[in-house]
Each structure stands twice: as C-alpha cells, then as structure tokens.
Amino acid sequence: MKLIFAGTPVFAAAALQALLEAGHEIVLVLTQPDRPAGRGMKLKPSPVKELALQHGLRVEQPLNLKTPEAQALVAEVGAEVMVVAAYGLLLPKVVLEMPVRGCLNIHASLLPRWRGAAPIQRAILAGDAETGITIMQMDVGLDTGDMLSVHPVAISDDDTAASLHDKLAAVGAQAIVSTLAQLAQCPAQVQPEEGVTYAAKLSKEEARVDWSLPAADIARAIRAYNPAPGAHTLLAGEPLKLWQAHAIAGSAAAGEIVRADADGVVVGSGAGLVVLTQLQAAGGKRLAAREFVAGRAALAGCVLGA
Length: 306
Description:
Layout: E1 2-7, H1 10-21, E2 25-30, E3 35-37, E4 42-44, H2 47-54, E5 59-60, H3 68-76, E6 81-85, H4 93-96, E7 103-107, E8 115-116, H5 119-125, E9 130-137, E10 147-154, H6 161-181, E11 198-199, H7 215-224, E12 231-235, E13 238-248, E14 257-261, E15 264-268, E16 273-281, E17 287-288, H8 289-294
C-alpha cells in the first residue's frame, strides 16, 4: 500500500522496518523534531528518523499537525493509510480523514484497558497477567477508535517495562503488517464500554518507593519504572535507583535491610520482603546485587528511604 508512517521512538521504528520489509510504499515519514540528548545536549534524531533516512525516505518533523502547512504535507501525498505508532502528537480530525482508508494506530495494550500514555508500565503496576497490541482505527478520542485486530502478550513475573516493551514492539510490527494485508476482510469492532482504564503519564515523584506498601506492589513498581523514570529511594541519605526486584515471604520493618548478599538486598515492607537484585548508587553504574554488596560495608540494619 501507499502509506504515511508517523512515529518517533524505537517501538515505532520496529513497525516501520516491518512495513518496509513487507514491500509497502512509504511516501512520507512524520516524526517529532530532533531533541537535545547526551552530555553535550546535541540535537539527536529520533529512531524513526534515523531508520527512514537510511532507506532514503522523505521525513518531515512539524511541531504539530494543526497548521495548514503541516496538513498540506499529509494531503499532498495521497496515501491510502497513515500508520501511527507512538508518534507523540495529536492528529486533528481533518488529518485523520485525509488518507483514503484512514489512520491506524499500533497501541500497546488490549483496549479498552490502558488507553493513554503509559500502557506498558501501568499494566505491570496493576499486576496484569497479560497485555498486548491492538490495531485500532483512529478517531478524535483518546484511544477510543474501533479495533481491527488484537494480539495478546503474556507478562512474565520478571518483566520490566523495557523487556515488555521489546516484546510488544516485535508483536506490534508483525501485527500491523498482517492487519494491512487483510484490511478489506478486517471487520472493525467497537470497543466495549466496560473495562476502560487510563494509563496516565508517569512522573518521577510516583517512582519514589513507598516501603510501607506490600512487597509485591513494590517489586512490580520497580520493574514498571525500568528504564524510566527509574524507581528510587535513599540509602544513608544518598539517592539509590532500583532496577530489578521480586517479592518473597517474610517480615521486617518497612525499608529495613535484613540481609545483603550475592543473591540480593532483602528489604522489609508493609507485607512481605523485597529482594533487590539490580541497584545503582548516585554517580555509579547499574550493578547486580553481588557487585553492589561487594563494594560496600555491612548494609544489614540500614533503613532505605530515610
């Protein structure tokens, strides 16, 4: 098909690669403007832009799609479909109606559960057993459009947002290819009214660990905030980031380190114990518990968060 592709991060780049490999004609790529990154804060192109330029595709980076100039970019190419994946900009109604067969979104949840900005992280935080990819016909609402195909993905007990992202990116890439191949035979299904939840944008403040919560909730939060914004606490008054954890039975005062060895730093909570298996001190690198403990004096008895 003759497609416009709109996307920005790695999740979207996986879909663009799959569409190219499937032989679709990508007549225009829309992605967000280059952003400052790294220590030098130099402008860095998005993963989608980098991939598009490697393939000699036309790339445009409007600040938004509300201006006549930006809308003309979409109108003039005469695309059959616009495929949207984590683009990060709203599509006005006039733009949604420009492609002959509309705009399809690759959404990282089983709609109507987890509409919104952070569906991967919210699914882990909630303890969901599965999530998935929904290919959706876009409308003016927030992830409210009709569903064309649904592709479940199991959430494992050790999944982080990073690992689950990679699973979903791979599934989403194949899902959009298969949906486009059967578009004429894909009956659109209205999203059910029951089961709607919203995946609010993440904040650094909510990623601060509350050790009074149950251990299972804390462990899920640590995995959900990996890689961003990063679960964090204090150790002897200094910032400490937590990247991987699981819960076990036991009891101790909330935040108290009861054991620290090669198997993990074991911390009390509101119910159960949290085993921290990957940690990062301020100014340091991510370390497995074995390495983290080896470089420090006795940690048992210390209280995290104080």
